[in-house]
Write a structure and sequence with these properties.
The complex is a heterodimer of chains A (109) and B (111). Chain A is mostly beta strands and 109 residues long. Chain A has no helices and eleven strands. Chain A is globular and about 40 Å long. Chain B is an all-beta fold and 111 residues long. The chains are: A mainly beta (109), B mainly beta (111). At the A-B interface, strand 4, strand 5 and strand 10 of A face strand 4, strand 5, strand 9 and strand 10 of B.
Chain lengths: 109, 111
């Protein structure tokens, strides 16, 4: 199948906002997800958005969905050093989740 | 607390050996999944199971086998036919619409 695309790296300074972008493939996907992975660990679900929504906000996290362009973004406000991790977007395709390759976020103090 | 447990955390395999990775969940999730993670490759789906005694191949099933005899358990066997098994293996379980819960992973190394 086609790939879910993400940029591979993002570097920001502590206190700045981070925006991680993702392009998905299936316009009929009902749910889209953002996961966080810290070194040597499994994936932690950060947030998800239903396809009939344009935006979802959860504390420092804002998810924007552009269905026309099949574009998903995750904005992290006031980025902290503890936010340094790999971030994966995923779309539901059939009964399984298909993941992008992940964006490594590096936060410098 | 409910969760999903993978064991062992680290596993070493000699060439030609079969090894089995354990995955157990007490979340009462119907569906369970195995993914393989390689550096720069993201997660690739190996096998998944939506109900007991039923499972389907994912994108990279060759050299792997699974069973689903109990709802709570979904072990993955890496067979000698898998030519490049060194990777980080992640198990997940889920219900439709709620995303997955992941285990903490097993790192398999061929020695």
């Amino acid at each position: 199948g086609e790939d879910v695309e993400q940029s591979l790296f993002l570097s920001v300074r502590e206190g700045d906002s981070s925006v991680i972008n993702c392009t998905y493939t299936d316009s009929s996907s009902t749910y889209l997800y953002w996961y966080k992975q810290e070194p040597g660990a499994g994936l932690q679900l950060l947030t998800y958005i239903f396809s009939n929504m344009d935006m979802k906000q959860d504390q420092r996290l804002t998810v924007l969905l552009n269905k026309k362009d099949k574009h998903l973004s995750l904005r992290i406000a006031d980025t902290q050093t503890g936010d340094s991790a790999i971030y994966f977007c995923a779309e539901r395709r059939g009964t399984a989740l298909i993941f992008g390759k992940g964006t490594t976020l590096s936060v410098s103090s | 607390d409910g969760g999903i447990t993978q064991s062992p955390k680290y596993l070493f395999r000699k060439e030609g050996q079969n090894v089995t990775l354990s995955c157990e969940q007490n979340l009462n999730h119907d569906a369970m999944y195995w993914y393989r993670q390689d550096p720069g490759q993201g997660l690739r789906l190996i096998y998944y199971s939506q109900i007991v005694n039923d499972f389907q191949k994912g994108d990279i099933a060759e050299g792997y086998s699974v069973s689903r005899e109990k709802k709570e358990s979904f072990p993955l066997t890496v067979t000698s036919a898998q030519k490049n098994p060194t990777a980080f293996y992640l198990c997940a379980s889920g219900m439709r619409g709620t995303g997955y819960t992941f285990g903490s992973g097993t790192r398999l190394t061929v020695v």
